[in-house]
UniProtKB/TrEMBL annotation:
InterPro entries: PduO/GlcC-like, PduO/GlcC-like_sf, YBR137W-like. It holds the Pfam family HbpS-like. This is UPF0303 protein SAMEA4384070_02068. Coiled coil: none annotated. NCBIfam families: PRK02487.1-5. Gene3D superfamilies: Haem-degrading domain. It comes from the Bacteria. Belongs to the UPF0303 family. HAMAP family: UPF0303 (MF_00761).
Length: 161
């Protein structure tokens, strides 16, 4: 797959992974599904779900180090700023041979374009929050997040490489 193919697949993922309803109970169920998926893969990750700036779910798996929370925060900030997945923004910058700081004036201290954060999109509304994980390599974080979201929503999606 080319970088353009991956960007198209990411765009399809973002369009397809849309909720018809999302509330505190949905956040809890999605967080539990991500925790179970991480346990199956024996990953030491942190999981965060935010709705309109309020943290509704946070869990750090056994073995997750404290610095992972900062990675989660920085990835989440990318989703909040762009309403796109952190991995998609990273690939777009790679394609443009640029950085967050060069192109947008955003500090790497507060933003990270590594895979693992995804917008929570509500049908007819758009981005209402974010779901973020960190602790594995970025592509693994992205795959875990997208595959769990797809399963949660009963969808099948194209993968990125």
């Amino acid at each position: 797959m080319t970088l353009d193919d991956d960007l198209r697949a990411l765009s399809e993922q973002e369009a397809a992974l849309t909720f018809s309803h999302f509330d505190h109970t949905t956040a809890w169920a999605l967080g539990a599904a991500l925790k179970a998926a991480a346990e199956q893969r024996r990953l030491a990750i942190a999981i965060e779900i935010q709705l309109a700036g309020q943290t509704l779910f946070y869990y750090a798996m056994p073995g997750a180090t404290p610095d992972i929370a900062d990675w989660v925060r920085r990835k989440r900030n990318v989703v909040k700023h762009f309403h796109k997945s952190s991995y998609a923004i990273g690939l777009r910058l790679q394609q443009r041979q640029s950085t967050l700081e060069e192109r947008y004036g955003l500090s790497v201290r507060d933003y990270s374009v590594h895979g693992g954060a995804f917008p929570l999109n509500l049908s007819g509304v758009g981005c209402i929050g974010s779901v973020s994980i960190s602790g594995a390599p970025q592509l693994e974080d992205h795959h875990l997040l997208v595959s769990t979201l797809a399963q949660f929503l009963g969808l099948s999606l194209p993968a990125v490489h």
